[in-house]
Design goal:
The structure is a homodimer of 323-residue chains. By secondary structure, chain A is an alpha+beta fold. Chain A has helices spanning 3-11, 61-78, 97-113, 163-172, 182-189, 195-201, 215-226, 241-250, 254-258, 274-281, and strands at 23-25, 32-35, 41-50, 82-92, 117-125, 129-138, 154-158, 207-210, 229-233, 265-269, 288-295, 299-303, 308-312, 318-322. In chain A, 32% of the residues lie in helices and 28% in strands.
Chain lengths: 323, 323
């Protein structure tokens, strides 16, 4: 086995991300040594992307590198944590220096922009897959959880929903390809983790989750963890211009509600803090949109202005019933 | 995609390992929240095992679970670190509850025995692979590195070398199968990470590495990182009873020197500390064996008592030359 070639790969990552004074020992030894600032809690997340499951084989390596870190930073964002360090387990079928250079370019670009230092890695031979572990910091007692929502809390989301799903649809189904511009494509390939938004919400939101599997599923997780339900006003769900056009053509609400890969945040806010959150939202270009309210009655109800409820069945089809 | 089934998998790991009071939030949210004790440095490592590359498809799931954590704890041991937490990224081609239960059994058994709590996980669909990240603690200024060896330092190893390699050979080549007893098999399937030994050596050794790719390769890494060379007395390399018999039959020194998967420690000791290290070695059942000495002249020289040098070529063949 040409292990030396795999060592060579490691060199593309030897100076990856933002230099940090708290890294006592970085890549190249058995482990990394890190100084955790006193009075902070450590936040740890891990996410894996597997070829043909999470990304098509022809994904540009730079996009994959970017996205593999972005989805992990999104997990930190949902905790209200400040990103600090990451490790990377990269499995590749063969050594392709151009591919690795491209991957490292995307990964390290986002790491540098996010204040993250890559401190450890493992490159192995096998079917292509990327597993990233992120380490972040949060004040003790801080740290947004999924479980803090209470009846009466308002439900918000950042940004717009369904863009990544629409981009994927437009890539795979030629009759929708007219929707696919570079901006929509970027929403799929290089999602923006809402890190600063999550940190700012740390003391204001009662619960948060990032939307990786679609609003309906992920808000469902938040509600279950909190032991509450919610009603969502369908017409309030924030949509980008292409998604609005697509919806006008199709009436397919299911897409923005069930498509994954958006990596926006969904969070709940106790009503006394709503004015603060509304002001805060104006400071971020993605914006915060109020979409509904938590209730004691379990379950997620997706309501139109005419009072009818949208029902999503397991196959992703929709129908409406009177409430 | 039956994501619910993958959620089910996560339940096998929901109470995995040693309960720890410093876990503020464990498995089940976007990330884990951990309290790092004041005055400690964080030690982070990551290692991936891929099916057909690092383990055969018919590996018992419990053995794979055990070994996937063991190889990571071995990295912590080589840093002199106390294990604390782990995350697990598990990629599986399909949901097989029996397989997952077996894997979790082996993984969580070693976690509990090592004081480690599993705090995060990600199960995905794809070709079978296991990526584990371990987090440990060490006193500031502690932490064994690869780079601290100086000329004159004595070179030691723990345990015996080549057992896992001999077990693998006996499994694959029927003419060696008479060597394969349960003890040798366990050396391959359930290696013992030398955690307590590494911690005890933290203040005594000048450099350390764990032997995952064979003594020659891994000691070579330690020497390169330290900017020194070494001479090893071949007859001093500690061998188990089966390996001694195999060597008597074959004269194949290359096996114990190049076979991977032993997960013993190789470390250097400044000569003034040799007496302390010798006493310490008697406290561990694996023992410490003095095998050679670091020198200013770069490179690794493997010397027999008759003065001849063993040369290992890239294909793993050996020959001897006069020194």
């Amino acid at each position: 086995m040409p292990l030396a070639e795999f060592d060579l790969i490691a060199r593309y990552f030897s100076d990856c991300g933002h230099p940090r004074g708290d890294v006592a020992l970085g890549i190249g030894d058995d482990c990394a040594l890190l100084r955790v600032p006193g009075g902070k809690q450590l936040v740890v997340g891990v996410d894996t992307l597997v070829e043909a499951i999470h990304f098509p084989p022809d994904t540009a390596p730079g996009d994959l590198g970017y996205k593999s870190l972005a989805v992990n930073l999104s997990d930190l964002a949902a905790m209200g944590a400040q990103p600090a360090w990451a490790t990377l387990a990269l499995t590749l079928p063969a050594v392709d220096p151009d591919w690795v250079r491209g991957f490292a370019g995307g990964f390290c670009e986002l790491a540098a922009a996010s204040g993250v230092r890559l401190v450890g890695g493992d490159t192995t031979r096998g079917p292509r897959a990327v597993s990233v572990q992120v380490l972040g910091l949060v004040d003790p007692g801080g740290g947004l959880r999924r479980s803090g929502a209470a009846p009466g809390d308002r439900i918000y989301v950042t940004g717009t929903l369904g863009d990544a799903g629409l981009a994927l649809k437009a890539l795979h189904e030629s009759r929708w390809s007219h929707h696919l511009g570079p901006e929509l494509r970027r929403r799929l390939d290089r999602p923006t983790p809402r890190v600063a938004e999550g940190i700012a919400l740390g003391r204001l939101a009662s619960a948060a989750i990032d939307i990786s599997d679609g609003l309906a599923a992920d808000l469902g997780h938040l509600l279950s963890a909190s032991g509450v339900g919610a009603v969502i006003d369908l017409e309030r769900v924030p949509l980008g211009p292409q998604m609005r056009r697509y919806l006008a053509e199709t009436g397919d609400y299911a897409l923005p509600l069930t498509a994954g890969d958006d990596y926006e945040l969904c969070f709940s806010v106790p009503s006394p803090r709503v004015p603060q959150v509304e002001v805060l939202g104006t400071q971020f270009s993605c914006g915060f949109t109020l979409i509904g309210e938590a209730e004691a009655l379990p379950g997620l109800r997706l309501r139109r202005h005419d009072g009818s409820l949208l029902i999503l069945d397991r196959a992703g089809y929709q129908h409406f019933v009177d409430s």
